[in-house]
Amino acid sequence: MNGFSVGIVIVNLLSFVVAVHALLNKRDPRAALAWIIVCLALPGVGVVLYWLMGVNRIRTRALRWQRRGEGIYVAEEEAPCEKSVVLRTPFHTQNYQLQRHLADAVTRRPLVGGNRVVPLYNGEQAYPVMLKSIRAAERSIDLSSYIFDTQFCGREFVQALIERAEAGVAVRVLVDGLGECYSWPRVHTLFDKTPVQVVRFLPLSLFRRGMHLNLRNHRKLLIVDGRVGFAGGMNISQRHLVQKKRHDVRPRERVVDIHFKVEGPVVRQMLEVFQEDWQFAGGRPFELDPTPPCLGGPDSLCRGISAGPNEDYEKLVWIVVGALNCARKRVSIMTPYFIPDRSMVTAMNSAALRGVNVEIVLPVRNNLPYVHWASRGAFWELLEYGVKIYYQPPPFAHSKLLLMDDHYALIGSANMDPRSQRLNFEFNLEVYDKSFNAEMRHHFDTTVAKSQAISLDEMDGRPVWQKMRDNFFRLFTPFL
């Protein structure tokens, strides 16, 4: 047997071993089957692809941290304002009790009262408030963004952060190693030779152990002095400035979104999430600011939910399915990327059959066409059982929002797709607040009023080639 033949045998043996690894370790049987086919059909190539994209080394590292007692937050036995949480509505009704018990079981943080959550629409509202908070910082600024544009408004953020760092404020900036590639020059280079501390989350490199093309940090967090926080779906990007008078962003590139200003004890949970990511990515350890006091007057009950491949549970899937199962009247979902798995489709249909009004608002034109096609492959199953689906007109809608009945909202960075629910590091907030729910409901209903309803007849009437295209891309749901 010559050297070439030996090489062929070794490659085929490695492909078989990797296929067995996928069989034993992949929780989603569709993903396991897909990887097995790739490894056996493409010997050698499948091994490389699986090593780069299919192996979750993050959870292994996180488990080592837990064993050493590092970097993983453990909830305090008594949370701030806990008495008000127990005694107050909406927990006099069973559906909210059950939703809370589910989140208590699968998350690492308590539900806390004494908070205020204020929605900020698009960059025109969000960026000035964020910059004002940064410029008023006295002790610390902690900023995490998936995309940090280095043009136009991004430069304004860079300058404000440098100025506060030079004034003695501890400024820490965490950017995703893939997300920073959306802009040039890369943002970390703009902080060179300044007091701003910058860490890149899993930077892309052929010379590191695994490139981690997946497993990205998709969180968008800003915490100032440990007292004021910002979270949601908005990156730092000129595209979020959507007013038509602007000439530096082309109309088709504009992105509408909602960000949220947060005050109260839950800001401490946001800071803990940032600290975990910061130390995980190699940043120098730092002490957390004190927990903010409870706010007086009308407030929100909130919980920070950090989800990602380092966690034991698929928290976001379970919590969304829980909300669908607990709903009595209405569930409203707004998301840019919608690729539901079987459990999500079943929960939506089950809720609709129980008489719950299940509504989903999606952008009519997606910036990722293959995601748009894959989502259309699932529409008929939902429409058949009474789920309502709407297409929102341009600009591209990047908002992520789930409302359940009159009190519950789930907001944050996660989309309704496998990448957010299983692969990316995400941060969401649970909010129990009737007035906040009503404000978000008004935004949702206003959007629906100008959106196009999708009908089952329309889906059935698609040309055969469109049905084949949409269903073909739906086959790749575990990877999209």
TrEMBL record:
It is a multi-pass membrane protein. It is found in: Cell membrane. PROSITE patterns: PLD (PS50035). One of its GO terms (molecular function) is cardiolipin synthase activity. SMART domains: PLDc. SUPFAM superfamilies: Phospholipase D/nuclease. GO terms for cellular component: plasma membrane. This is Cardiolipin synthase. The keyword Transcription does not apply. InterPro entries: Cardiolipin_synthase, CLS_N, PLD-like_dom, PLipase_D/transphosphatidylase. Keywords: Cell membrane, Lipid biosynthesis, Lipid metabolism, Membrane, Phospholipid biosynthesis, Phospholipid metabolism, Repeat, Transferase, Transmembrane, Transmembrane helix. GO terms for biological process: cardiolipin biosynthetic process. It comes from Desulfuromonas acetoxidans (strain DSM 684 / 11070).
